[in-house]
């Protein structure tokens, strides 16, 4: 885990997103698929103090500029708008790589990789690593509409098969990734489903994977203030190996969790509740 | 080289920069960015008697030059803290200020009792009583909003901590008159005051039209609140200088991001400074602030850091 | 088109956006950027009985996402105000909320008496009692820090203002319990509450190592304090909703820079919103905020602005 | 007085300063020498809310880009550092022209223009306007050191004579502008001395001008939060035509004042006190 003064060396539109390449020497060398970087935003006079976190799309450990890190950014609020309006050669402070990467299977089992929106960003690199290990890989990419799909062409290179869904039917199947996932898992005999995207999608992916005999490994996206494990803002309830549910920091305990360990019953409507049976949960008559 | 040592009620620290409770976890995470033993002291996340899950999420919202948090004192409980966290910090050679809290004044006492019995107690250079938390016995009113509750907690904590280790009372700025609360804490035996905790705030999500935090209210921190922290430190140390309050060291906290920010708190009267929210922006912030504060002291040509403490009271222009 | 009208204790305003007292002078300056008559109301700089020079300078310091000011209520005095400022505002067709203050509760009364006798009184749609200023008779303690002083001032002001014109009491957030102060003001006859005034702060000049303001302390304003303003509005309107306080409109102020900022205060319970410090950044800010707030109301699909007032209390997630 | 979304079209070093050219249509057309502009700083995520004020160095009412305004900026704090690090084509929000310009003599009397540091910036344009009206013009430029002088070459074009002083003697006479001013006023038989620079200098200029029978017109630099007259932060004590001292807003009542009207006795040590005889001054036992 490093903090480096990086530099933007490429910025291009990719559908609804911006694909940024940052020089961040050292970060690239240490990273594995599923990890993320935390970028400072707003420059020297910034009122936006908190870092913004982005999945690492891919890395180039060395090269003309030293190691580079690619991220795919959806411009939403103040920080992402600032990042996407940067010009080449602007400085960007980078902390990373952060979090636990996708765990890789020890055997060459078939895998399905599911990405929702920009959630597909970390999956291509993962696909390559899996295929290097001999795992057959298929991808399922979904989004609200065609412009919100990221990397469909890349997917065709990185995976043995690609299925696309959009909510509005503007590309691929009309519907959700979970509508098609079961068939893909069955067809491939997949042992692992990796997924990254919105919480609702991760929940359905977990359900479908379980129902079809696969393990789900999901990368969650919780609101993070620090990204390095010191603030406790990014927690979600996860059942441990001992069966006990704890409020786990998704920046250091995740962002990748086994889907069946996440307490989806506590998550919804933009709020994550503390399950009553969680360790240290408030109980009537005091905490 | 400026002598950066500072004295905290009998304990001498090699330098005046600390982490702020709850903004640095218990050390392992930041130690990857700099050796936590290099700080004047490491202040741990407030620990309570039992393990606590904390609040639902969202627990945070960014605000202009600050943030709102409502963690709800999530933590492992004092026993796990003594077993895992404190020994690790001792091993690093860190000087530790342990922040403690309880749902009731008595619970503060229980926490301290177990803490003092910890095999790693030797690394503890101070106990910070986080009285800016709700008192279950008094309709959830924050202890530090009421002089009587503040006094009760500090008295219990002071009684259980061995005399050679200072007790710090951490105050909230959300009161009409912080000097009265400071007086109550000092009267009850606090050796030093930590000022300030967060301000109570709310952010509304303007898409969902509901409070952004699941817990509705949260604590406002970061550079946005620095003028309030400086004012609180100023008021309390002015009262000490005028003899209205007994003299005691003040540990400043609130909005410190750079060495000059730290110097603001010091010149207003703080003998040491904690770095909180800025750590989320820059994981090396506490260590960097120390380097920058040292450079500021050198720039001002003082030989001892101590010469800067409260200096603004003396340099004030009288109109 | 959303119906943007809002009702302020009997008086209907065409829209809910106002200037904040002391951040817009008395209208002539901003009128070059937009017609001040387009605002729901124009709030004048607090006027006292006699002409006042105000404080020495420096009177201001920039702070992260905010500023500190210590103007010291510089102004022409109520007679000059009634002779020059109010008639000009009346001529523009502005609806005016006149902010008044006194060194003592009685002086508030004198100011109001002369104001009510002004030939231009007809344009006055409200009198805002700025009780967030020092009470000379009570060791300079701010009126609004004490329920008894607050009550006294409001009672005197309410008695002198004709019944059809609402009296607003402007509260400071620098208190342990703002609901109690709000209760005192309402009990004394305030028709509405303006919340909040600035927070007390200090900035130290780290070159000169002395307070940056000649007056040492100043009032902190701007986006930095918005979460505190939203919280104060929430607490007071929550108390009204639960029946603890009598129901009355709240005028929100603190850190509003955009229409979404204004919506935060509105969703928390404010029936109208004042724009202060943001005007220094953008002279058209009050007018722009109105346009943006209108767009926000339309985006949320409401027919009436009034439907948004306090909506966050209803949409709150219960954990 | 306008608020316009401007654009930086040139930025270059000038000794210790940065010389910026901004497109600000409309502003240039309305401006007169001695007026200033207030620039927003820090961009969309800025924590620095207050505008920064700068004397207008010169204007080009029309041209390829529409009207442009030039300012000379000393990078000191957060806002000026931001301004001086902008790149060409970056947007800059401009409010102006603000304040009262230098009053021009109705007769073609000789004038001396005194600039301290970047305080010389508005004087060249003033010199040209004065010479158009037939006034003989000399300039006295002073600074701490050579790099802090602005526009010595320009001065030689704009004025009939130029005297330079530096505190350290690195250029021109060693010493202060007030050391040489008396001689220049006498030699020229000047009726008006215009000055812009630090408060201490303006005070001495006023004293020297009075002693040598000239009227001083000084442009003061008070800390300003709004620049447009609504905040009351920028006041200084000025004696009016009626002999009464009032705390006058320097952004609308100034920045140019008759030097002998300013209550220098109240100003010093970085603080401006309220003279006891000022209108509404606090008096014992109440305000
Ligand atoms: C592990 C991880 C990986 C991510 N990967 C990507 C990615 O590859 N591409 C992408 O576009 N986005 C990604 N996100 C989401 C991205 O971090 C947020 O969209 C972004 O922080 C929002 O910043 P803003 O300035 O637009 O929004 P603001 O609303 O201004 O953000 C305010 C604060 O809230 C936090 N925040 C707000 N929304 C989110 C969110 N959804 N997740 C985390 N923090 C949030 C911000 O970090 C910031 O501290 C990822 C988030 C996490 C946690
Ligand atoms: C009428 C007028 C004309 C000026 N002309 C020039 C010029 O031509 N070139 C130039 O370099 N500077 C000029 N200044 C000074 C310039 O405005 C300040 O140097 C600048 O505002 C400081 O901003 P900062 O971000 O560097 O400092 P900061 O310390 O970050 O500023 C903080 C706040 O204080 C205010 N402030 C601080 N110092 C001053 C000051 N000296 N005067 C006014 N406000 C101040 C700023 O506007 C801002 O609101 C002028 C000032 C005035 C009032
Ligand atoms: C996320 C977060 C968690 C915090 N947790 C605690 C805590 O457990 N105990 C405590 O005394 N203060 C806690 N604080 C308050 C800080 O210690 C500090 O007093 C406050 O944030 C002001 O300092 P800052 O502006 O440097 O952050 C917390 C602050 C933040 C932002
Ligand atoms: C320069 C300045 C002067 C002010 N003067 C007054 C005043 O005369 N009377 C008053 O009631 N409030 C005064 N205020 C407070 C504002 O009206 C407002 O309550 C406060 O600034 C918070 O709003 P804001 O964040 O939008 O500025 C002043 C604020 C500023 C910044
Ligand atoms: S984001 Fe701070 S602990 Fe995870
Ligand atoms: S700068 Fe605001 S009144 Fe002059």
UniProtKB/TrEMBL annotation, chains A, D:
InterPro entries: Cyt_c3_hydrogenase_gsu, Dihydroorotate_DH_ele_sf, Dihydroorotate_DH_Fe-S-bd, FAD-bd_FR_type, FNR_nucleotide-bd, PyrK_electron_transfer, Riboflavin_synthase-like_b-brl. Keywords: 2Fe-2S, Electron transport, FAD, Flavoprotein, Iron, Iron-sulfur, Metal-binding, Transport. One of its GO terms (molecular function) is 2 iron, 2 sulfur cluster binding. This is Dihydroorotate dehydrogenase electron transfer subunit. It comes from the Bacteria. It comes from Phycicoccus endophyticus. Belongs to the PyrK family. CDD domains: DHOD_e_trans. Its cofactor is [2Fe-2S] cluster; FAD. Residues 1-104 form the FAD-binding FR-type domain. The keyword Flavoprotein applies. FAD binds at residues 52-55, 79-80. The keyword Ribosomal protein does not apply. [2Fe-2S] cluster binds at residues 226, 231, 234, 251. One of its GO terms (biological process) is pyrimidine nucleotide biosynthetic process. It holds the Pfam family DHODB_Fe-S_bind. Binds 1 [2Fe-2S] cluster per subunit. Binds 1 FAD per subunit. PROSITE patterns: FAD_FR.
TrEMBL record, chains B, C:
The active site is at residue 133. GO terms for biological process: 'de novo' pyrimidine nucleobase biosynthetic process; 'de novo' UMP biosynthetic process. Keywords: Cytoplasm, Flavoprotein, FMN, Oxidoreductase, Pyrimidine biosynthesis. It is found in: Cytoplasm. It comes from Phycicoccus endophyticus. Belongs to the dihydroorotate dehydrogenase family. Type 1 subfamily. The gene is pyrD. Binds 1 FMN per subunit. Catalyzes the conversion of dihydroorotate to orotate. This is Dihydroorotate dehydrogenase. Its cofactor is FMN. Pathway: Pyrimidine metabolism; UMP biosynthesis via de novo pathway.
């Amino acid at each position: 885990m490093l903090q480096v003064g990086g530099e933007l060396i490429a910025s291009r539109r990719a559908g609804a997103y911006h694909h940024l390449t940052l020089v961040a020497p050292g970060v690239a060398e240490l990273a594995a698929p599923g990890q993320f970087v935390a970028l400072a935003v707003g420059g020297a006079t910034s009122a936006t103090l908190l870092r913004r976190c982005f999945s690492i799309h891919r890395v180039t450990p060395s090269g003309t500029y030293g190691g580079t890190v690619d991220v795919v950014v959806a411009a939403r609020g103040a920080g992402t708008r600032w990042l996407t309006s940067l010009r080449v050669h602007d400085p960007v402070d980078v902390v990373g790589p952060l979090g636990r990467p996708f765990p890789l299977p020890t055997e060459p089992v078939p895998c399905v990789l599911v990405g929702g929106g920009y959630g597909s960003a970390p999956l291509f690199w993962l696909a390559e690593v899996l295929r290097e290990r001999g795992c057959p890989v298929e991808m399922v990419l979904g989004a609200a509409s065609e412009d919100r799909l990221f990397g469909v062409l890349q997917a065709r290179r990185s995976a043995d098969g690609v299925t696309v869904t959009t909510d509005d039917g503007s590309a691929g199947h009309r519907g959700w990734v979970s509508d098609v996932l079961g068939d893909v898992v069955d067809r491939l005999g997949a042992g692992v489903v990796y997924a990254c995207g919105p919480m609702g999608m991760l929940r359905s992916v977990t359900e479908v994977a379980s129902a079809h005999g696969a393990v789900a490994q999901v990368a969650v996206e919780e609101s993070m203030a620090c990204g390095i494990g010191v603030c406790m803002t990014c927690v979600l309830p996860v059942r441990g190996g001992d069966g006990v549910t704890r409020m786990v920091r998704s920046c250091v305990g995740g962002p990748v969790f086994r889907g069946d360990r996440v307490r989806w019953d506590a998550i919804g409507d933009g709020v994550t509740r503390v399950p009553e049976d969680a360790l240290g949960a408030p109980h009537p008559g005091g905490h | 080289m400026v002598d950066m040592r500072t004295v905290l009620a009998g304990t001498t620290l090699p330098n005046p920069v600390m982490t702020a409770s709850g903004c640095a976890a218990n050390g392992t995470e930041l130690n990857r960015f700099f050796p936590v033993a290099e700080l004047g002291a490491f202040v741990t996340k407030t620990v309570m008697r039992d393990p606590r899950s904390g609040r639902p999420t969202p627990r945070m919202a960014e605000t202009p030059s600050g943030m709102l948090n409502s963690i709800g004192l999530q933590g492992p409980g004092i026993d796990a803290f003594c077993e895992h966290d404190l020994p690790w910090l001792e091993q690093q050679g860190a000087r530790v200020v342990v922040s403690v809290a309880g749902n009731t004044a008595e619970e503060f006492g229980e926490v301290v009792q177990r803490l003092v019995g910890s095999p790693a107690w030797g690394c503890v250079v101070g106990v910070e009583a986080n009285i800016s938390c709700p008192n279950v016995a008094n309709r959830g009113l924050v202890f530090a909003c009421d002089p009587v509750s503040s006094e009760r907690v500090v008295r219990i904590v002071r009684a259980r901590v061995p005399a050679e280790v200072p007790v710090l009372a951490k105050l909230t700025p959300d009161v009409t008159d912080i000097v009265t609360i400071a007086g109550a804490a000092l009267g009850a035996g606090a050796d030093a005051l930590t000022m300030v905790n967060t301000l109570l705030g709310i952010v509304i999500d303007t898409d969902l039209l509901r409070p952004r935090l699941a817990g509705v209210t949260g604590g406002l921190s970061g550079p946005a609140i620095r003028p309030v922290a400086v004012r609180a430190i100023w008021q309390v140390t002015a009262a000490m200088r005028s003899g209205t309050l007994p003299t005691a060291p003040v540990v400043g906290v609130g909005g410190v991001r750079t060495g000059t920010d730290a110097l603001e708190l010091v010149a207003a009267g703080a003998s040491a400074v904690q770095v909180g929210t800025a750590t989320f922006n820059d994981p090396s912030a506490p260590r960097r602030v120390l380097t920058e504060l040292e450079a500021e002291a050198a720039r001002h040509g003082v030989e001892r850091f101590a010469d800067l403490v409260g200096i603004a009271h003396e340099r004030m222009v009288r109109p």
